[in-house]
């Protein structure tokens, strides 16, 4: 089917997004009755009113989730039974891709077609992969002496709270909630206040798939009034967070001040991308370097510091600028859009302040302006700075927008030193056609993931996460299950 801009506009006209929280299998208003508006950043128009939950709603959701966990209604089902339910969820996500991608786009500004054609199918595949894995995980028997039997089994933790950001609202929610559910936990999900719609819709699909009432709950609202009470709650056993490093540190404190709950953090990044002159396909490297503008640059793992070897610097920068032009901001409902709107006005202003800082620190090589589309000025042209050094703010701080800082280097050792000189360590990339160099540099880079001759690779099969102040623990792959279970040892004398 040809999904034209008119096709999506017609869908928008018929859409009535649900804005209530979801507790104990039902959509509910906040206890106070308060709501807050959900604004489409690409038009400035209100899309829905969202339930403004607070501590009392969190207490209710956690107590329901704990009661259901203790009852065993989900936790004591066999892994194969849980698999069957989660496979149904994967199918429901596939069936609802149109609505989910539209909600995602209206809520946070991303191009709807990118979400529909790439992100949603991958997400359905991710849920399917987790579901399929859960009844293939074997536990262990330790190699003890004869007469002793030591069984080592994974056990669900209890109530897992998931607090997620707005840049990939449904992906981040599913990356946390689905493996947590697969392990038998009960879940309370808190979406970002900027992007609640797909999390709310997910609740309907989780229920339709057959997850018992109260096992999956969504509490909408703000960080300080919903996120903090979850972090501080005595009955939350595990807190899985994706968001900024600053808020990640709050969760470590909340845990220390309450019940020492497990805290898993996926936080910020300022990923380096090193391009050596010996790279065979420099044109492809430039095209991939420009992927920094994907999702409006609102990507934690984006290669935002581009390190280019001196000899190829000027030509390479010209190529990156050529590909940056493909990301000209466009109405997110236009199926050809590669770059949509920034998530909200406050964030647009924050990114533009960094652009202004960049103009005083370095050389603006491309972009640097806001663009007005459909009356909204939440669009920023891809922006490239050259002449950057690693001490500048635009090289050190996470901007979380379409801003690329290009740094020139002379030697391999210098490139590694610059790349590692960051408080973050989420991802790093190297472009080279020298095999030894590829291995040598990959080993030296301090990051959770290193990509060679490509950027920003993510798959359900492969762990994703950071070192240093980018966080701990890993989403995706079988390692994700480690976050949502603990090991129970049983000694038996015979
Ligand atoms: P944020 O940290 O401001 O918010 C994330 C979540 O935390 C939201 O749900 C928010 O309501 C909640 N929150 C905010 N303040 C809180 C507080 N005081 N106590 C408890 N909860 C609170 O992040 P954001 O602006 O939504 O997202 C952007 C950030 O997310 C960037 O730093 C980005 O790098 C990071 N991110 C990281 C990854 C990763 O996998 N490493 C992925 C996506 C985004």
Please explain how this structure is put together.
The protein has 2 domains: 5-267 and 471-490, 3-Layer(aba) Sandwich (Aldehyde Dehydrogenase, Chain A, domain 1); 272-459, Aldehyde Dehydrogenase, Chain A, domain 2, CATH 3.40.309. The protein is α/β, with parallel strands linked by helices and 494 residues long. The chain has helices spanning 5-13, 55-71, 79-95, 97-108, 112-134, 169-182, 197-209, 223-232, 245-257, 282-289, 313-324, 345-361, 393-396, 412-420, 435-444, 480-483; strands spanning 21-23, 26-28, 35-39, 46-51, 140-141, 148-156, 159-163, 186-190, 216-218, 238-242, 262-266, 272-275, 305-309, 363-366, 370-373, 376-380, 383-386, 403-409, 424-425, 427-431, 449-452, 467-468, 485-493. It starts with a helix and ends with a strand. The strands form 7 sheets. Strands 14-17-18-13-12-20-21 form a 7-stranded mixed beta sheet, with helices on both faces. It has a 5-stranded parallel beta sheet with strand order 9-8-7-10-11, with helices on both faces. The protein binds nicotinamide-adenine-dinucleotide. Nicotinamide-adenine-dinucleotide (NAD) is lined by residues 163-167, 172, 190, 192-193, 222-224, 227-228, 231, 242-244, 247, 250, 266-269, 300, 398, 400, 426, 466, 470-471.
């Amino acid at each position: 089917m040809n999904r034209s801009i008119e096709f999506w506009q017609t869908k928008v006209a018929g859409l009535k997004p649900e804005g209530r929280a979801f507790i104990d299998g039902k959509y509910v208003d906040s206890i106070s009755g308060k709501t807050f508006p959900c604004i489409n950043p690409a038009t400035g128009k209100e899309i829905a009113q969202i339930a403004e939950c607070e501590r009392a709603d969190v207490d209710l959701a956690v107590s329901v989730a704990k009661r259901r966990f203790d009852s065993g209604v989900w936790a004591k089902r066999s892994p194969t039974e849980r698999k069957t339910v989660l496979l149904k969820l994967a199918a429901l996500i596939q069936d609802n891709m149109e609505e989910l991608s539209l909600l995602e786009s209206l809520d946070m500004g991303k191009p709807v077609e990118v979400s529909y054609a790439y992100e949603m199918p991958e997400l359905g595949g991710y849920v399917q992969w987790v579901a399929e894995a859960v009844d293939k995980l074997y536990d262990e028997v330790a190699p003890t002496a004869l007469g002793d039997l030591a069984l080592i089994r994974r056990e669900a933790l209890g109530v897992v709270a998931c607090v997620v950001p707005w840049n990939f609202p449904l992906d981040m929610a599913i990356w946390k909630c689905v493996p947590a559910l697969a392990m038998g936990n009960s879940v309370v999900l808190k979406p970002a206040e900027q992007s609640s719609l797909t999390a709310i819709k997910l609740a309907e699909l989780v229920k339709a798939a057959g997850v018992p009432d109260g096992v999956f709950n969504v509490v909408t609202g703000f960080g300080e009034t919903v996120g903090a009470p979850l972090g501080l709650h005595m009955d939350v056993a595990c807190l899985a967070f994706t968001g900024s490093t600053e808020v990640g540190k709050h969760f470590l404190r909340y845990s220390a001040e309450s019940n020492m709950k497990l805290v898993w953090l996926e936080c910020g990044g300022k990923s380096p991308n090193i391009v050596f002159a010996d790279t065979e396909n420099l044109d492809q490297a430039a095209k991939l370097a420009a992927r920094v503008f994907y999702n409006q640059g609102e990507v934690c793992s984006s290669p935002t510091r581009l390190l280019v070897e001196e000899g190829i610097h000027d030509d390479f920068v010209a190529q990156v600028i050529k590909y940056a032009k493909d990301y000209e901001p466009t109405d997110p409902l236009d199926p050809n859009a590669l770059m949509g709107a920034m998530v909200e006005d406050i964030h647009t202003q924050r990114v533009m302040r960094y652009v202004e800082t960049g103009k005083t620190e370095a050389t603006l090589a491309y972009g640097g302006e806001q663009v007005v589309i459909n009356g909204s000025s939440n669009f920023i042209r891809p922006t490239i700075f050259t002449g950057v050094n690693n001490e500048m703010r635009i090289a050190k701080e996470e901007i979380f927008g379409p801003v690329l800082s290009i740094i020139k280097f002379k030697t391999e050792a210098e490139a590694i030193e610059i790349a590692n000189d960051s408080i973050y360590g989420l991802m790093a990339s190297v472009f080279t056609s020298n095999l030894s160099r590829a291995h040598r540099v990959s080993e030296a880079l301090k990051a959770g993931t290193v990509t060679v001759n490509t950027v920003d690779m993510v798959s359900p099969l492969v762990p994703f996460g950071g070192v240093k102040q980018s966080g701990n623990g890993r989403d995706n792959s079988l390692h994700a299950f480690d976050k949502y279970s603990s090991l129970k040892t049983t000694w038996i004398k015979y």
